[in-house]
What does this fold into?
Amino acid sequence: MGNFYVNFSVKKSDPQEVVSVLERMGRSAFVTPAVGGYVTIFDKEADSQDTAEIEKLGIALSQETASPVLAVMNHDDDVLCYWLFENGGMIDHYNSFPEYFSDEDEDDDYQTTLGGGASKLCDAFSVPSATVAVASILHEGDYAFAVERHEAIANALGLPMCGVGMGYEYVARGELPDDVTEDQLIRVG
It folds into this structure.
């Protein structure tokens, strides 16, 4: 069995601003301190891989923090999906293996299209020079596990590694990212 997780990276250096949004929304989550100018969120409802919850939280975070937000979902280490949010809207989405969900409800775009605009992703996180590398990771890279693709994307974009391979359930069980200690995490809800 592979990884199952969802997390959010917010381009913000103040975790309290993110915590305030989560509290107003009544969410249960763990929030990291800012690492390299990004705050990472492990949200309980989104970690169930409910795409409506992922979109609801991503939209709210991007609007209320006025910052780009990247939500990443790893499904059984077979599929990596992301949603990119800015200014209260979803501006890009990606699914590394759209055929994986073909027997399920096909009303969700993320299930039926590959997507993934490398330039949108790189522009949102101020690394336009990484566009070619990110495009290769998204569309050409041969990765045995989705977590490897997630790590490559995080490295290319300069995102903190604390989000790679981590979700709410893992953190709640005491499994912590290497670059964050338990006393640094902020628990919401």
The CA atoms of residues 29 and 132 lie 34 Å apart. The chain has seven helices and seven strands.
